[in-house]
Amino acid sequence: MTLVIGCNTKESKIKLKVENTTQVEIPSDTLTKHLKPFNPELPTIGLLMFNGVLQGEVIATSDVFGKPNQNMEQLFNVITIAETKKPITTEEGMHFIPDYTFGNTPKLTALFVPSGYDMYAQVRNEKMVDFIRRKNEEAEYIVSNCAGAQLIGASGIADGHKIVTYIGGGKQLQKDYPNLKVQNYSLVTFVEDGKFSSSNGNLTSYISALNLLEKMTSVRHREFVESYLYIDRLQNWKR
Fold first, then answer.
1. Of 93, 64, 80, which Cα lies nearest the Cα of 205?
2. pLDDT digit string (tens) for 172-185?
């Protein structure tokens, strides 16, 4: 039995060729079955984006909160946000189209602030910093990954709270934002202090997302998502 996947402009079809005799075409909807419509009854997770963003830190959060529960039910709205509707180009060269802008973002339950290799333009973007301040007033949780901590520092929303940034960036972060309680990145991968949490970024962004997922759901659901993502296989991986 040979499985051949084919497409056309109207719909995708799966062709089954059995022993070179019969072809059976089964329509396969590859778009609408995966759409997750915005449900105002669900908590909303906002993923901030900007040109040069490290896409893994956006994907990690969407990976975790975009998974259904064991009954295949959607639990969260996961949306992307940028200053404008123009496509965002990530550090890695991919293009993302944001769902919302700073002006029309719905009420958020949590805001995730990622990083880029050059945060100079971001921390000096008053529209972005003000957006973070405004969303902090309504959001129950604020999460930064890697150098996203610099945007948190610029906003002033986490003054007096513990925070961690990327490996090698702690001293400068403390110097630039002395009211933050910057943790030792060589000892701390993830830290939580009140509504604020932060991580070293990159793959550790999964830690910050999974930690918040457990707080918002349950240990059981976190374990389900970890198994969905094969996190256990990554943890046990050996070279």
1. 64
2. 999 999 999 999 98
